[in-house]
Design a protein that fits this description.
By secondary structure, the chain is α/β, with parallel strands linked by helices. It folds into 2 domains: 238 residues, EAL domain (TIM Barrel), CATH 3.20.20; 85 residues, Helix Hairpins (Orthogonal Bundle). It is 51% helix and 14% strand. It has 15 helices and 8 strands. Strands 1-2-3-4-5-6-7-8 form an 8-stranded mixed beta barrel, surrounded by 4 helices. The longest helix has 28 residues. The radius of gyration is 23 Å and the shape is globular.
Protein backbone atom coordinates (compact mmCIF):
# COMPACT_ATOMS: atom_id res chain seq x y z
CA UNK A 1 0.00 0.00 0.00
CA UNK A 2 1.41 3.38 -1.04
CA UNK A 3 0.64 6.80 0.37
CA UNK A 4 -0.45 7.85 -3.13
CA UNK A 5 -2.81 4.89 -3.44
CA UNK A 6 -4.42 5.62 -0.10
CA UNK A 7 -4.83 9.28 -1.02
CA UNK A 8 -6.54 8.25 -4.28
CA UNK A 9 -9.05 6.02 -2.46
CA UNK A 10 -9.67 8.64 0.24
CA UNK A 11 -10.33 11.27 -2.44
CA UNK A 12 -12.80 8.96 -4.22
CA UNK A 13 -14.70 8.53 -0.96
CA UNK A 14 -14.64 12.24 -0.20
CA UNK A 15 -15.70 13.26 -3.72
CA UNK A 16 -18.29 10.49 -4.06
CA UNK A 17 -16.74 8.94 -7.13
CA UNK A 18 -19.45 6.28 -7.10
CA UNK A 19 -23.20 5.90 -7.49
CA UNK A 20 -25.87 3.56 -6.13
CA UNK A 21 -28.21 1.14 -7.84
CA UNK A 22 -30.91 -0.84 -6.07
CA UNK A 23 -31.92 -4.46 -6.58
CA UNK A 24 -35.37 -5.57 -5.35
CA UNK A 25 -35.74 -8.55 -3.02
CA UNK A 26 -39.08 -10.21 -3.77
CA UNK A 27 -41.55 -12.47 -2.02
CA UNK A 28 -41.40 -15.48 -4.33
CA UNK A 29 -45.04 -16.46 -3.78
CA UNK A 30 -46.63 -13.06 -4.41
CA UNK A 31 -44.09 -11.10 -6.45
CA UNK A 32 -44.33 -8.16 -4.05
CA UNK A 33 -41.22 -6.26 -2.97
CA UNK A 34 -39.86 -7.25 0.43
CA UNK A 35 -36.97 -4.78 0.27
CA UNK A 36 -34.15 -3.44 -1.87
CA UNK A 37 -30.39 -3.84 -1.59
CA UNK A 38 -28.16 -0.82 -2.22
CA UNK A 39 -25.28 -1.74 -4.54
CA UNK A 40 -22.28 0.48 -5.31
CA UNK A 41 -20.99 1.28 -8.81
CA UNK A 42 -17.69 3.16 -9.13
CA UNK A 43 -16.97 5.86 -11.69
CA UNK A 44 -13.69 4.27 -12.85
CA UNK A 45 -15.49 1.08 -13.87
CA UNK A 46 -13.55 -1.25 -11.58
CA UNK A 47 -15.48 -4.00 -9.83
CA UNK A 48 -16.93 -3.04 -6.45
CA UNK A 49 -15.17 -6.04 -4.87
CA UNK A 50 -11.78 -4.56 -5.89
CA UNK A 51 -12.66 -1.21 -4.31
CA UNK A 52 -13.90 -2.75 -1.08
CA UNK A 53 -10.80 -4.94 -0.74
CA UNK A 54 -8.64 -1.84 -1.14
CA UNK A 55 -10.68 0.04 1.45
CA UNK A 56 -10.26 -2.84 3.90
CA UNK A 57 -6.51 -3.03 3.28
CA UNK A 58 -6.08 0.73 3.70
CA UNK A 59 -8.20 1.06 6.82
CA UNK A 60 -10.85 3.07 4.97
CA UNK A 61 -13.71 0.56 5.00
CA UNK A 62 -15.74 2.46 7.59
CA UNK A 63 -15.28 5.76 5.74
CA UNK A 64 -16.53 4.16 2.52
CA UNK A 65 -19.51 2.54 4.26
CA UNK A 66 -20.55 5.82 5.89
CA UNK A 67 -20.29 7.64 2.54
CA UNK A 68 -22.56 5.03 0.94
CA UNK A 69 -25.08 5.45 3.78
CA UNK A 70 -25.05 9.21 3.22
CA UNK A 71 -25.86 8.70 -0.45
CA UNK A 72 -28.60 6.16 0.32
CA UNK A 73 -30.16 8.62 2.75
CA UNK A 74 -30.74 11.02 -0.16
CA UNK A 75 -32.54 8.27 -2.11
CA UNK A 76 -34.74 6.81 0.60
CA UNK A 77 -37.87 8.79 -0.24
CA UNK A 78 -37.83 7.38 -3.79
CA UNK A 79 -37.56 3.72 -2.76
CA UNK A 80 -40.52 1.29 -2.89
CA UNK A 81 -42.15 0.10 0.35
CA UNK A 82 -40.07 -2.44 2.24
CA UNK A 83 -36.69 -2.49 3.92
CA UNK A 84 -33.39 -1.04 2.72
CA UNK A 85 -30.41 -3.44 2.87
CA UNK A 86 -26.95 -1.89 3.17
CA UNK A 87 -23.68 -3.84 3.02
CA UNK A 88 -21.19 -3.06 5.78
CA UNK A 89 -17.74 -4.19 6.81
CA UNK A 90 -17.12 -5.63 10.26
CA UNK A 91 -14.96 -2.60 11.09
CA UNK A 92 -17.91 -0.26 10.58
CA UNK A 93 -20.08 -2.29 12.96
CA UNK A 94 -17.68 -1.45 15.81
CA UNK A 95 -18.16 2.29 15.26
CA UNK A 96 -21.68 2.36 16.61
CA UNK A 97 -21.97 6.08 17.37
CA UNK A 98 -21.25 7.47 13.89
CA UNK A 99 -23.07 4.56 12.27
CA UNK A 100 -26.24 5.02 14.33
CA UNK A 101 -26.23 8.77 13.66
CA UNK A 102 -26.02 8.15 9.90
CA UNK A 103 -28.69 5.44 9.91
CA UNK A 104 -31.30 7.14 12.09
CA UNK A 105 -32.67 9.51 9.38
CA UNK A 106 -33.14 6.50 7.12
CA UNK A 107 -34.67 4.41 9.90
CA UNK A 108 -37.21 7.17 10.48
CA UNK A 109 -38.47 6.53 6.92
CA UNK A 110 -38.00 2.81 6.30
CA UNK A 111 -36.75 -0.41 8.01
CA UNK A 112 -33.02 -1.10 7.68
CA UNK A 113 -31.17 -4.40 7.24
CA UNK A 114 -27.39 -4.35 7.61
CA UNK A 115 -25.65 -7.04 5.55
CA UNK A 116 -22.35 -8.51 6.68
CA UNK A 117 -20.70 -10.68 4.05
CA UNK A 118 -19.40 -14.08 5.04
CA UNK A 119 -16.26 -13.25 3.03
CA UNK A 120 -15.36 -10.54 5.57
CA UNK A 121 -12.93 -11.45 8.31
CA UNK A 122 -14.11 -10.62 11.82
CA UNK A 123 -11.20 -10.27 14.23
CA UNK A 124 -13.28 -9.55 17.33
CA UNK A 125 -16.75 -11.13 17.37
CA UNK A 126 -17.47 -9.77 20.83
CA UNK A 127 -16.92 -6.17 19.69
CA UNK A 128 -19.08 -6.67 16.59
CA UNK A 129 -21.80 -8.38 18.63
CA UNK A 130 -21.80 -5.51 21.15
CA UNK A 131 -22.21 -2.97 18.35
CA UNK A 132 -24.95 -5.01 16.74
CA UNK A 133 -26.81 -5.33 20.01
CA UNK A 134 -27.10 -1.54 20.30
CA UNK A 135 -28.21 -1.21 16.69
CA UNK A 136 -30.75 -4.04 16.94
CA UNK A 137 -32.17 -2.54 20.11
CA UNK A 138 -32.97 0.45 17.91
CA UNK A 139 -34.90 -1.69 15.42
CA UNK A 140 -32.18 -2.43 12.86
CA UNK A 141 -31.94 -6.01 11.54
CA UNK A 142 -28.87 -8.05 10.57
CA UNK A 143 -28.36 -10.23 7.50
CA UNK A 144 -25.38 -12.48 6.81
CA UNK A 145 -24.60 -12.25 3.11
CA UNK A 146 -22.99 -14.90 0.86
CA UNK A 147 -23.85 -17.71 3.27
CA UNK A 148 -22.17 -20.94 2.22
CA UNK A 149 -19.40 -19.30 0.20
CA UNK A 150 -17.15 -17.57 2.74
CA UNK A 151 -14.01 -18.76 4.43
CA UNK A 152 -15.79 -18.91 7.78
CA UNK A 153 -18.27 -21.63 6.75
CA UNK A 154 -21.26 -20.17 8.57
CA UNK A 155 -19.14 -18.80 11.42
CA UNK A 156 -20.89 -15.40 11.20
CA UNK A 157 -24.28 -17.10 11.40
CA UNK A 158 -23.35 -19.20 14.40
CA UNK A 159 -21.75 -16.33 16.31
CA UNK A 160 -24.04 -13.41 15.39
CA UNK A 161 -27.49 -15.06 15.05
CA UNK A 162 -28.73 -12.92 12.13
CA UNK A 163 -32.34 -12.09 11.34
CA UNK A 164 -31.80 -12.98 7.66
CA UNK A 165 -29.54 -15.59 6.04
CA UNK A 166 -28.72 -14.85 2.39
CA UNK A 167 -27.78 -17.92 0.39
CA UNK A 168 -24.82 -17.31 -1.91
CA UNK A 169 -25.35 -17.65 -5.64
CA UNK A 170 -22.87 -20.56 -5.67
CA UNK A 171 -25.63 -22.55 -3.93
CA UNK A 172 -28.50 -21.10 -5.98
CA UNK A 173 -26.72 -21.68 -9.31
CA UNK A 174 -28.01 -24.95 -10.80
CA UNK A 175 -29.98 -25.91 -7.69
CA UNK A 176 -32.69 -27.40 -9.90
CA UNK A 177 -30.15 -29.88 -11.29
CA UNK A 178 -28.23 -30.69 -8.10
CA UNK A 179 -29.79 -32.66 -5.21
CA UNK A 180 -26.84 -31.72 -2.97
CA UNK A 181 -27.58 -28.01 -3.36
CA UNK A 182 -31.25 -28.61 -2.61
CA UNK A 183 -30.35 -30.64 0.48
CA UNK A 184 -28.04 -27.87 1.71
CA UNK A 185 -30.73 -25.25 1.13
CA UNK A 186 -33.24 -27.32 3.07
CA UNK A 187 -30.73 -27.72 5.90
CA UNK A 188 -30.17 -23.95 6.00
CA UNK A 189 -33.94 -23.48 6.14
CA UNK A 190 -34.15 -25.87 9.09
CA UNK A 191 -31.33 -24.06 10.88
CA UNK A 192 -32.92 -20.68 10.14
CA UNK A 193 -36.11 -21.87 11.78
CA UNK A 194 -34.07 -22.86 14.84
CA UNK A 195 -32.76 -19.29 15.31
CA UNK A 196 -35.97 -17.62 14.07
CA UNK A 197 -34.32 -16.20 10.95
CA UNK A 198 -35.61 -16.02 7.38
CA UNK A 199 -33.79 -17.13 4.22
CA UNK A 200 -33.21 -15.05 1.08
CA UNK A 201 -31.74 -16.73 -2.01
CA UNK A 202 -29.34 -14.62 -4.10
CA UNK A 203 -28.46 -14.92 -7.76
CA UNK A 204 -31.68 -16.46 -9.11
CA UNK A 205 -31.16 -16.46 -12.88
CA UNK A 206 -33.48 -19.16 -14.28
CA UNK A 207 -37.05 -20.30 -13.79
CA UNK A 208 -35.79 -23.75 -12.84
CA UNK A 209 -33.70 -22.31 -9.99
CA UNK A 210 -36.68 -20.26 -8.83
CA UNK A 211 -39.02 -23.25 -8.76
CA UNK A 212 -36.49 -25.46 -6.97
CA UNK A 213 -36.02 -22.80 -4.28
CA UNK A 214 -39.76 -22.47 -3.79
CA UNK A 215 -39.99 -26.25 -3.43
CA UNK A 216 -37.39 -26.18 -0.63
CA UNK A 217 -39.42 -23.58 1.27
CA UNK A 218 -37.39 -20.45 0.43
CA UNK A 219 -39.86 -17.58 0.39
CA UNK A 220 -37.73 -14.59 -0.68
CA UNK A 221 -35.10 -14.05 -3.32
CA UNK A 222 -33.25 -11.71 -5.64
CA UNK A 223 -31.53 -12.13 -8.97
CA UNK A 224 -31.69 -11.22 -12.64
CA UNK A 225 -34.66 -13.55 -13.25
CA UNK A 226 -36.70 -11.50 -10.78
CA UNK A 227 -35.39 -7.94 -11.16
CA UNK A 228 -32.06 -6.39 -12.14
CA UNK A 229 -30.21 -3.71 -10.16
CA UNK A 230 -31.37 -0.32 -11.43
CA UNK A 231 -31.03 3.37 -10.80
CA UNK A 232 -33.98 5.23 -9.34
CA UNK A 233 -36.81 5.31 -10.07
CA UNK A 234 -36.97 1.52 -10.19
CA UNK A 235 -38.77 -0.01 -13.18
CA UNK A 236 -42.01 -1.92 -12.76
CA UNK A 237 -41.54 -5.48 -11.48
CA UNK A 238 -42.32 -7.95 -14.26
CA UNK A 239 -42.10 -11.14 -12.19
CA UNK A 240 -45.37 -13.03 -11.77
CA UNK A 241 -45.14 -16.28 -9.77
CA UNK A 242 -46.52 -19.51 -11.16
CA UNK A 243 -49.18 -21.21 -9.02
CA UNK A 244 -47.45 -23.31 -6.39
CA UNK A 245 -49.51 -26.36 -7.32
CA UNK A 246 -48.08 -26.27 -10.86
CA UNK A 247 -44.55 -26.41 -9.41
CA UNK A 248 -45.56 -29.44 -7.36
CA UNK A 249 -46.55 -31.11 -10.61
CA UNK A 250 -50.29 -31.07 -10.02
CA UNK A 251 -53.16 -29.43 -11.84
CA UNK A 252 -53.17 -25.64 -11.94
CA UNK A 253 -56.76 -25.97 -10.75
CA UNK A 254 -56.99 -27.81 -7.42
CA UNK A 255 -59.61 -30.48 -6.88
CA UNK A 256 -61.18 -28.10 -4.35
CA UNK A 257 -61.80 -25.58 -7.15
CA UNK A 258 -62.79 -28.15 -9.74
CA UNK A 259 -65.40 -29.44 -7.33
CA UNK A 260 -67.22 -26.11 -7.43
CA UNK A 261 -66.25 -24.81 -3.98
CA UNK A 262 -64.95 -21.33 -3.21
CA UNK A 263 -61.19 -21.20 -2.61
CA UNK A 264 -59.92 -18.69 -0.04
CA UNK A 265 -56.46 -17.26 -0.99
CA UNK A 266 -55.52 -17.17 2.71
CA UNK A 267 -56.11 -20.91 2.82
CA UNK A 268 -53.71 -21.36 -0.09
CA UNK A 269 -50.98 -19.44 1.75
CA UNK A 270 -51.51 -21.51 4.89
CA UNK A 271 -51.39 -24.70 2.82
CA UNK A 272 -48.02 -23.77 1.35
CA UNK A 273 -46.67 -23.15 4.85
CA UNK A 274 -47.84 -26.60 5.84
CA UNK A 275 -46.16 -28.12 2.78
CA UNK A 276 -42.89 -26.40 3.69
CA UNK A 277 -43.05 -27.79 7.24
CA UNK A 278 -43.76 -31.25 5.84
CA UNK A 279 -40.71 -30.80 3.61
CA UNK A 280 -38.54 -30.15 6.67
CA UNK A 281 -39.94 -33.23 8.41
CA UNK A 282 -39.29 -35.34 5.30
CA UNK A 283 -35.70 -34.05 5.05
CA UNK A 284 -35.05 -34.85 8.71
CA UNK A 285 -36.44 -38.38 8.26
CA UNK A 286 -34.27 -38.89 5.16
CA UNK A 287 -31.18 -37.85 7.14
CA UNK A 288 -32.05 -40.34 9.85
CA UNK A 289 -32.63 -43.10 7.31
CA UNK A 290 -29.35 -42.32 5.53
CA UNK A 291 -27.46 -42.94 8.77
CA UNK A 292 -28.69 -46.55 8.67
CA UNK A 293 -29.27 -46.74 12.42
CA UNK A 294 -25.89 -45.30 13.48
CA UNK A 295 -27.04 -41.81 14.37
CA UNK A 296 -24.95 -39.82 16.88
CA UNK A 297 -27.06 -38.97 19.93
CA UNK A 298 -26.80 -35.18 19.51
CA UNK A 299 -27.76 -35.32 15.84
CA UNK A 300 -30.65 -37.65 16.65
CA UNK A 301 -31.93 -35.23 19.28
CA UNK A 302 -31.60 -32.27 16.92
CA UNK A 303 -33.44 -33.98 14.07
CA UNK A 304 -36.24 -35.30 16.27
CA UNK A 305 -36.60 -31.83 17.82
CA UNK A 306 -36.99 -30.33 14.34
CA UNK A 307 -39.63 -32.89 13.39
CA UNK A 308 -41.49 -32.40 16.66
CA UNK A 309 -41.60 -28.61 16.29
CA UNK A 310 -42.76 -28.69 12.68
CA UNK A 311 -45.39 -31.34 13.41
CA UNK A 312 -46.69 -29.14 16.24
CA UNK A 313 -46.81 -26.25 13.76
CA UNK A 314 -48.74 -28.38 11.27
CA UNK A 315 -51.17 -29.59 13.92
CA UNK A 316 -51.73 -26.10 15.33
CA UNK A 317 -52.25 -24.54 11.92
CA UNK A 318 -54.74 -27.22 10.91
CA UNK A 319 -56.65 -26.76 14.15
CA UNK A 320 -56.78 -22.99 13.61
CA UNK A 321 -57.90 -23.46 10.02
CA UNK A 322 -60.68 -25.88 10.86
CA UNK A 323 -61.83 -23.78 13.81
CA UNK A 324 -62.38 -20.84 11.47
CA UNK A 325 -63.95 -22.66 8.52
CA UNK A 326 -67.73 -22.54 8.02
CA UNK A 327 -69.71 -25.81 8.19
CA UNK A 328 -70.27 -25.98 4.43
CA UNK A 329 -66.50 -25.82 3.83
CA UNK A 330 -65.84 -28.56 6.36
CA UNK A 331 -68.42 -30.71 4.59
CA UNK A 332 -66.71 -30.03 1.27
CA UNK A 333 -63.32 -31.04 2.69
CA UNK A 334 -64.85 -34.23 4.05
CA UNK A 335 -66.22 -35.04 0.58
CA UNK A 336 -62.81 -34.42 -0.99
CA UNK A 337 -61.16 -36.70 1.58
CA UNK A 338 -63.57 -39.42 0.52
CA UNK A 339 -62.67 -38.94 -3.16
CA UNK A 340 -58.97 -39.25 -2.31
CA UNK A 341 -59.58 -42.43 -0.36
CA UNK A 342 -58.36 -41.12 3.00
CA UNK A 343 -61.37 -42.03 5.14
Amino acid sequence: MTHQGRAYVAAAIRNRAFSLVYQPILHLESGTVSGVEALCRFDDGRAPSVWFRQCEAMGLAAEMDLAIIDMAREDVEFLPPGYLAINLSAATLTRVGPLRDRLQPILDRTPIVLELTEHAMVHDYDAVADGLRLLRDGGILLAVDDAGAGYSTFQHILRLRPDIIKLDRSITNGIDRDPARRALTTAVGIFAAEIQASVVAEGIETEGELNALRMTGVSRGQGFWLARPSRLPLPHIQYRPSPFLEILGGSSQPLFVRSGFDWDPALAVATQGLLSSLGYVTSALERLRAQDGAVPLEEFRALTSIMHRHLKHITGTLKDLFAGLPPETLKALDELAGRRGVR
